[in-house]
Amino acid sequence: MLERGDVRHAQALELLADASRLLASSFELSATLPKVAQLCVERLADYCAIAGSEREDEEFFFEAGHGKKLRLRRGDPGQIKTGLRSRGYANVLIIPLPGRHASLGVFVLATREDARFDDATLKIAEILGLQLANALDQATLFERTHQVADRLQRALLPASFPRVPGGQLDGAYRPASEEAEVGGDWYDAFELPDHRIAISMGDVAGHGLEAATIMGEVRIALRAAAVGERSPAAVLEQINSVTNLRSGIGMVTAIFGYYDPVNRELTYAVAGHPPPALIVEGGLAGYLPGGGVPLGIGSEIGTRDWVITLPPRSWVVFYTDGMTEYERDVIAGEERLLEASVRACESDPENPAIALQERIFSSSVNRDDAATLALSCFDGPVPKRMEFSAIPMTAPIVRAMVNRFCDQNKLSDDQRFALTSSIGEAVANAVEHAYRGEETGKFELRLSAQDDCITVDVQDHGQWRPFERRDDRGRGMLLMHELMDRVRINSAQHGTCLSMVLNLRDPA
């Protein structure tokens, strides 16, 4: 019901101010226009509708009114007016919403009173109509610019991935919802002449053409440096030297790695980028090591190689910080990413990267670009030779690998217990004692099944730290001798090999 005099006009002016704030707050018309329509019903009329088209093939119609909504459609203004009057609205005001090139829609107000809209109300409605037209025009322009930026960004990313024997690669890119510029996130994967798969991912600080240009330069430089190299850390150091030659490059985080699909061995290095996540079917989920400083900051990035042999039915998820910093709480974002990765990888194997982004942003807005690359490892035989960085996280990975080995060789429960317990102790010794100082080395695990026995070798390449007896440790060797049929230790200057044999048949 319309109010009279100064009170009504004051409310109308407040309406203009509140509507302006709403329209300026977001380009999401589905969020702002219903609120504007509701404000008009509360302060200006009994019914309000805003109808138009944000895109050529997509129309919208938002309405608010006292009682049940009419569910009218955009249609012809004369039809709208006739429809409203047939439903008891005495006065109907339809204001066109002009655009730069064509009409964008209509703004409709109606009241059940016999009194006509006075001149002040008409003026307020006209001003509000202009505000709505400008908001629609800006939203349309933003949407078109956003689509162009999205297409350009996707054109800079690989159109397809190489075939991965025994696995697959999947990628997903999601542009910032509130940005209309191309970003600096990328992922890449390509096959090398020796059939290894090179994988890279990174994030150039900022948005716009300059960030996209830098991203393209770094990605191509990584491709060139990858050929003939074995060390991902050496590749990143080389790229860092190249980026330092370019002035004003800003900060670039990156991760680069090689994947050997035959041995399921992933070797990677990190330059200030978020560390990859590892998911193993059956409950193991965690973050692999990271480190290093971003490219283009100093003469050295201080990175190193990390190596892991992937168990059957496992996934490695690479991602940019847009996947964890969307709510400005990195710790909570990392926890949610890990939980969502488990569900996405195990429940949506066709493309875990897309499934992960859909889960992460189902109830959150991505304020930054988000890129995801998932390396899936299908079921298959456990490699005879496996290599790992000597870090505590390898213990559950090795346990998963050994359990799968036991499944494949149909070992009994007692044999499984003996093998997993003994190998676990041997791996713990390699991690804890083999390497001195801060440098972390590698160790190899070799597993072989014959008709009558299982042979195991755990080989490190370091010099063992002096043994320190502790009440809760020191029983590992005793346990191995108790569980295995033969245990032998060969120590040399450049490493130690612990060999074990488990008989599958009782000696005659």
Give the oligomeric state of the chains in this entry, treating copies of one chain as homo and distinct chains as hetero: single chain
Mean pLDDT: 83
CATH architecture of the largest domain: 4-Layer Sandwich
> What's the end-to-end separation, in Å?
102 Å
In total, how many beta strands?
19
Spatial extent as radius of gyration: 32 Å
The number of helical segments is 11
What share of the residues does DSSP label as strand, in percent? 25-35%
Biggest β-sheet: strands ordered side by side in the sheet: 5-14-13-10-11
Overall structural class, as computed from helix and strand content, comes to: alpha+beta
Question: How would you portray this structure in words?
Answer:
The chain has about 500 residues and is α+β, with helices and mostly antiparallel strands. It folds into three domains: about 5-150, Beta-Lactamase, CATH 3.30.450; about 160-375, 4-Layer Sandwich (Phosphatase 2c, domain 1), CATH 3.60.40.10; about 385-505, 2-Layer Sandwich (Heat Shock Protein 90). It is about 35% helix and about 30% strand. The chain contains eleven helices and 19 strands. The chain has helices at about 5-25, 30-45, 75-85, 120-155, 210-225, 230-245, 330-345, 350-360, 395-410, 415-435, 475-485; strands at about 45-55, 60-65, 90-100, 105-110, 165-175, 185-190, 195-205, 250-260, 265-270, 275-280, 285, 305-310, 315-320, 370-375, 385-390, 440-450, 455-460, 485-490, 495-505. The strands form four sheets. A five-stranded antiparallel β-sheet has the order 5-14-13-10-11, sandwiched between helices. Strand 16 (about 440-450) and strand 17 (about 455-460) form a beta hairpin. Helix 5 (about 210-225) crosses helix 6 and helix 9 packs antiparallel against helix 10 (about 415-435). The N and C termini lie far apart (about 100 Å). About 40% of the residues are buried. The model has no long low-confidence stretch (mean pLDDT about 85).
